[in-house]
Design brief:
Elements (H helix, E strand, L loop, with lengths): L5 H10 L26 H9 L11 H13 L1 H7 L8 H10 L3 E2 L8 E5 L4 E10 L3 E9 L11 E8 L5 E5 L16 H15 L11 H19 L11 H7 L9 E2 H12 L11 E2 L2 H13 L10 H6 L3
Antiparallel strand pairs: 1-6, 2-3, 2-6, 3-4, 4-5, 7-8
Helix pairs in contact: 1-3, 2-3, 3-4, 6-7, 6-9, 7-9
Protein name: Peptidoglycan binding-like domain-containing protein
Organism: Hungatella hathewayi WAL-18680
């Protein structure tokens, strides 16, 4: 049985960014109409219909938002399993579900983790991790605001970021997506391309739309990602403009990356594969060339009629940017 695709729930959650809490129990399915501060949302209403004794409505809804995203992505029973065994709109209770399943972590987060925040009294807010790099964890949260720091009752769905090790982070619940942390085979290329766009924006500040469609701007973003990696690893001093020219070609030269190496060129390789609807098994910053990435590179080489060495050389990098 293949594992669940972690990017499916991420795609759903990111699609809700901009939704505003309602003043009353109407216009729930319009993102911005009837905005207010009375805790009326489609997330709370639908989850209350599923679990009326557990999911209160109207009520503070950060946890209901996360549960709703999982329910939409995987269905009721599978969502419950992934979330530690059930739904819960009380953040302390949700965290406890993960703790009881030995799925609670306080180290470096992973994409798809449920993040929990604490105040001086208890765990009081939650969201979903959609990206991680060497310095920050990036989240999408319900019942929050767009300002910096934890906003536990902000009235909307927003993308946020926090420094790793931020004192407000209590820990992470890690859903059991399955083998490879949900990075199994895909029936659709959209979640992979979407993940590549998200990583490209975070790694190289590409500023492209995160729509799951590979077009000219995504292609240019891929080149910019590679330029960024070569500047970091090789001090190439390239202008990170997303244009392939003689200087970019010369900087790439005969460079290659292979199994066991850790560098930003590996990060670039992982992102470029995602943009081409290939599954590298995860993205790290700097990247770690492991067995999943080797398999992805080998398959790409085989599909292109090349010798399946598993080594990402200059021709392979160039192929991923055209």
């Amino acid at each position: 049985m293949m594992g669940n695709d972690v990017h499916k729930v991420i795609e759903i959650a990111l699609g809700e960014v901009g939704y505003l809490e309602k003043a009353s129990d109407r216009e729930l399915y319009d993102k911005t109409a009837n905005a207010g501060d009375r805790n009326y949302t489609k997330y709370g209403k639908e989850m209350h219909a599923i679990e009326p004794s557990i999911m209160d409505y109207p009520a503070p809804w950060c946890d209901a938002f996360v549960d709703w995203c999982f329910y939409q992505a995987y269905g009721i029973e599978e969502a419950k399993r992934l979330l530690g065994g059930g739904f819960d709109d009380y953040t302390v209770g949700s965290a406890r579900l993960y703790q009881n399943m030995q799925a609670w972590h306080t180290g470096k987060p992973q994409i798809g983790d449920q993040i929990f925040f604490r105040n001086a009294v208890r765990i009081y807010h939650t969201g979903l991790v959609y990206d991680v790099d060497s310095a920050y964890v990036y989240t999408v949260e319900g019942n929050t605001g767009g300002g910096s720091g934890v906003i536990a009752n902000g009235g909307g769905v927003w993308k946020k970021k926090y420094r790793l090790g931020d004192a407000s982070i209590a820990g992470y619940g890690r859903p059991g997506y399955g083998a490879g942390n949900g990075n199994g085979s895909e029936s659709s290329s959209v979640p992979l391309i979407l993940a590549g766009q998200i990583h490209a924006n975070n790694f190289a500040q590409c500023g492209i739309e995160e729509d799951g469609i590979y077009g000219p701007l995504s292609k240019r973003a891929g080149i910019k990602v590679l330029q960024r990696a070569m500047n970091l690893d090789y001090s190439a001093r390239l202008t990170e403009d997303g244009l392939w020219g003689p200087k970019t070609q010369a900087a790439l030269g005969r460079h290659y990356v292979k199994y066991g190496e850790t560098q930003y060129m590996v990060t670039a390789l992982e992102i470029l594969l995602l943009l081409k609807s290939r599954n590298p098994g995860g993205v790290e910053c700097p990247g770690e060339f492991g067995s999943n990435l080797t398999s992805a590179v080998t398959q790409y080489q085989t599909d292109h009629g090349w010798s399946p060495t598993g080594i990402a050389d200059a021709p392979l990098f160039h192929s991923l940017t055209v």
